[in-house]
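Troubleshooting entry. Yesterday's outputs looked truncated, so today I'm pasting the complete records for two proteins to confirm everything comes through intact. If either block looks cut off, that's the bug. Protein one:
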Amino acid sequence: MTASELVGNDVLATLSAQAGQADAEGVWPEASWLALRRAGVLGWCAPGEYGGQDRGPVELLEGYESLAGACLTTCFLLSQREAACRRIRDSGNQALCRELLPALARGERFATVGLSQLTTSRQHTSPALRARLTGETLELDGTIPWVTGADHADHVVIGATLEDGRQVLAVLPRDTRGVSVGPPLELMALQGSVTAEVRCDRVQLERRWLLAGPAERVVMTGRGGAGGLETSCLALGLTAAAVSDLFDEARVRPELLARAENLDNVRRTLRRTMHELAVTAAAPEKATALRAGANNLVLRATQTALTASKGAGFVRTHPAQRWARQALFFLVWSCPRPAAEATLDSLAP
């Protein structure tokens, strides 16, 4: 099955038509999300026993890549929802799987993640979200600094740090007493992701919501984690949109053709590597190297498209300026230190 067959051209068309608005306005992209739900996209990663489609790893990446090329904002929301579903699915907590995954697969509920405080955000200060585990209760106090789709979420998969430095993962129902959601952050792009800070004020959570831990590191980088394949996949999807625009422009400006072909060759090479890593037990450093390469490529491809578009591309209605702004997000989104260092080396050796 090709990516377009998996996603559906009508879905891609809907997302593309709404992409500019989804990027610019801090409002949940209802029409785009509804298109994903109607097409069954929300069941892709869920096991069949919970009403999902249980798509294979390469098939998933191909689908995400197509969606990212059509609307990165909507696909970013989807990626955070998929991350939450995977954490629940792989937790071994069968009771929570039965309770949450069927409704998530049907699109009746929305879940997201709040894990950056354990991986990339605020790593040089005291723990942003603190936890105390006593008997059957997990008490949470502090801040979850980056939660995408926070105000729309029914559940947030969160990570917190205990007093002894160990960490836990848990599902946090958003309507739990003591949980409050701040206003959407003023981002330079992807405003429709309605990303916000979530505050926990002495939140009491039953132990049944625990997914993992206590352990020293409950969130690992690499495949499926920070700097994982899904993040690189979205960068390659955005790259594909910019390169496609360059090929279109090259029809009337042949001097652009070689540049478009060079960028596309690099994209295809990284894409093959990504698919190979998806079906093998690859070392985390390989996924990190892929992420660094994808970061570099998406910056070059989108800025090339912007340069080729001339002044027209600097107007808000032109997609080139949106792609160039969105590409900068990959410099900060779940970017582990090795990938960040590789990007810094390429920008300022």
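Protein two, checking that the full record survives here as well:
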Amino acid sequence: MKMLSAALAAVGLLSAAPAFAAPVTMTFQNVGTVPMQYVSTNACGTFSPTPTDISAGGTSASSSTDCGSAASAAHVTYKMGTKQCVFHISTIYTPGNPILGTSGYWTPSASVTQSGGATCKVVSQDISNVFTTGAFAAVYSMK
């Protein structure tokens, strides 16, 4: 009986994982007067399209990565001379607990790290799909 209970609990936990992917998408705006120079990307999967330099007043194409059913994350670095911004995005799935009867949920996060006098912001966040698929998008700015 103990073995059957353990097997059923394991099946319940495995079936609590989402059956879909959770892409994160980033878009960048240059609200400064000089070009934003792309430095690097650190992502859990392929980040596409690869970000490029952004002219003053310009906006990048949207780039995204999808790392599977439990989490997706990316960190993109841009600079303007000595100013630097690292833009962070993630969405992480917390599985439900069938024993307690709790549902699984996604936790999205968008943030920035700035240095050298840069002004970096999260301009907007799109959470419209977080509660269903975990997909999350954000728009960032730098000057």
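Both blocks look complete. Sanity check on protein two: Strands lie at 24-30, 37-43, 63-65, 71-80, 83-94, 105-115, 120-126, 136-142.
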